[in-house]
Specification:
2 domains, elongated, alpha/beta, two-stranded antiparallel ribbon, 5-stranded parallel sheet, binds magnesium ion, 20% strand, Rossmann fold
């Protein structure tokens, strides 16, 4: 007898659950949104106002910028002098010595501007043609000198600098709205322009020129 009541109870619960689910489905949940962790690009919306149909909407990508390292935020003149052979050529092994990289002097005004950029909600990507062998030294240097956090990209030794920068920026652009790039070389400017972002050239290893650079950036991110 008890068993029979138990079965009737279970059956009742099942019927109630089915009824509840079918009603909920008809009404549709007000808004169902799915987005990836980093401000996902595609959002799926299901709304009763769309007759329960699924529609796809584009979320704005988070803002970002590209910052070169050598000659832009790091003064590497001493390292370069040490790595210059008597015939004027460069000893690249020495130039990309992690211990020497760590000794580069920070360009303090650039740090101030990068902190301001960060406060404006623009993510920083440090895209440098330094070889990947010094990646850890670069990260150490950025942290040691209190530069804002950001992803750091370096070049594999066999890669051509220009192509590497363009490829890296295009990959970043898949997930971010990259507004501008700052660099001290014509090659940086070509890479930025090729990727369709505002290109700002800063005088090599200059503190003062960052004042002008900040004004240029202010026009872009206000
Ligand atoms: Mg540079």
């Amino acid at each position: 007898m008890r068993r029979r009541y138990l079965w009737i109870g279970v059956l009742g619960l099942v019927i109630l659950s089915v009824l509840f689910l079918s009603v909920a489905r008809k009404q549709g949940s007000p808004l169902k949104a799915e987005a990836s962790l980093f401000g996902g690009v595609q959002t799926r919306l299901r709304s009763s106002s769309f007759g329960g149909q699924e529609v796809f909407a584009q979320l704005p990508k988070p803002k970002a910028c590209i910052i070169d390292i050598d000659g832009t935020i790091a003064n590497e003149k001493e390292r370069r002098a040490m790595a210059t052979n008597p015939d004027g050529s460069t000893n690249w092994r020495k130039y990309f010595n992690p211990e020497l990289v760590k000794k580069d002097k920070p360009i303090l005004k650039s740090r101030e501007v990068l902190r301001w950029i960060e406060e404006k909600g623009v993510k920083i990507f440090y895209v440098s043609s330094r070889e990947t062998t010094v990646l850890e030294a670069s990260k150490w240097w950025l942290k040691a000198h209190n530069f804002p956090e950001g992803e750091v990209y370096h070049r594999k030794s066999f890669a051509q600098s220009l192509e590497y920068k363009i490829d890296t920026i295009r990959t970043i652009q898949k997930s971010y709205h990259v507004i501008f790039g700052v660099g001290d070389r014509d090659r940086d400017i070509t890479a930025y322009q090729t990727c369709g972002i505002a290109a700002i050239k800063v005088a090599e290893s200059s503190e003062e020129d960052w004042i002008r650079v900040k004004n240029e950036i202010a026009k872009l991110i206000k």
